[in-house]
Automatic annotation (TrEMBL):
InterPro entries: MetI-like (IPR000515), MetI-like_sf (IPR035906). Gene3D superfamilies: MetI-like. GO terms for cellular component: plasma membrane. Keywords: Cell membrane, Membrane, Transmembrane, Transmembrane helix, Transport. The chain crosses the membrane at residues 7-29, 69-88, 100-119, 131-152, 173-198, 247-266. It comes from the Bacteria. Residues 65-266 form the ABC transmembrane type-1 domain. One of its GO terms (biological process) is transmembrane transport. The keyword Methyltransferase does not apply. It is a multi-pass membrane protein. This is ABC transporter permease subunit. It is found in: Cell membrane.
């Protein structure tokens, strides 16, 4: 009896949690004329791709999607190189001043400079209204560096010594031996960085004034606040714009799906990478 009750409660909780996503999907595929007649639709009688067709033909939306794609790919690659390189260097005991560097990195975790100092640094670097302002200040996370360092600590030093005997330089050893062994941690942190860059919103509002450089999240926010989305997304076709609500729901789906598709490709390494920094008995 208790098991049946638990199953019923879990089923109700799951249904409540899944319903908003279901509603977003349903509305995005609803025929615009049907949605205008009955705005609250649980199961449309006519399914339509009109909202997706209009939205994907919009230069503004595709440009924002491209900006987010640039951030997620280039930003993630740059962050992984900086994080992995810094973590590997800190894991080697022969590095002079290693404890000082670790102390400074730990300070960045404990104390945040705040919005105004960050903005002043970005302005002094001349990155205002530049998409690189969303990448360079966020190249490395102190927490991620420390976690990845603990992974590099577990790699035997004898591997480097053997490579050095064979004539391999430090840089060659890092690329040819250390990085291949670090694929689980790189996959895990790569996913974290990719999600963070894809969801860039607040920093984009601070540093980007040009609408052509907005990532997809900023465009979505403006779509939700705008009473008429045609001001933000003008389709290149002569098709009449669908209702703003269906456009918003379709935009949410399109903005969510790409980052969800990344996980299956990293799942192989993600389980191992998720244990980075854990205590082993």
């Amino acid at each position: 009896m208790i098991n049946v009750t638990n199953l019923i409660l879990l089923a109700i909780i799951a249904a409540v949690a899944f319903f908003p996503l279901y509603y977003v999907i349903v509305v995005s595929f609803t025929e615009p004329s049907e949605f205008l007649q009955k705005p609250f639709v649980l199961f449309p009688s006519d399914w339509s791709l009109a909202s997706y067709e209009y939205m994907l033909s919009s230069k503004a939306f595709m440009r924002s999607l491209g900006n987010s794609g640039f951030l997620a790919t280039v930003g993630t690659a740059c962050s992984l190189v900086v994080t992995a390189g810094l973590a590997y260097a800190l894991s080697r005991k022969r590095l002079r001043g290693r404890r000082l560097f670790m102390f400074l990195i730990t300070l960045t975790i404990l104390f945040s400079p705040g919005i105004i100092p960050n903005y002043m640094v970005v302005r002094q670097l001349g990155l205002i209204n530049n998409i690189w302002s969303l990448i360079i200040p966020a190249l490395a996370s102190g927490w991620n560096v420390i976690l990845m360092k603990s992974f590099f600590d577990s790699i035997p030093v004898e591997l480097e010594e053997s490579a050095a005997i064979d004539g391999s330089s430090d840089l060659s050893t890092w690329f040819r031996i250390i990085l291949p062994l670090s694929l689980p941690s790189i996959a895990a942190f790569g996913l974290f960085y990719a999600v963070g860059y894809w969801n860039q919103y607040f920093t984009a509002l601070l540093y980007l004034n040009d609408a052509s450089k907005w990532p997809i999240q900023v465009l979505l926010q403006n779509m939700l606040l705008s009473a008429n989305n045609s001001d933000l997304m003008v389709s290149s076709t002569a098709v009449q714009a669908p209702p703003s609500t269906t456009l918003q729901m379709a935009a949410v789906i399109v903005a969510t799906v790409p980052i969800l598709l990344v996980y299956p490709f990293l799942q192989k390494h993600f389980a191992k990478g998720g244990m980075v920094g854990s205590v082993k008995g």
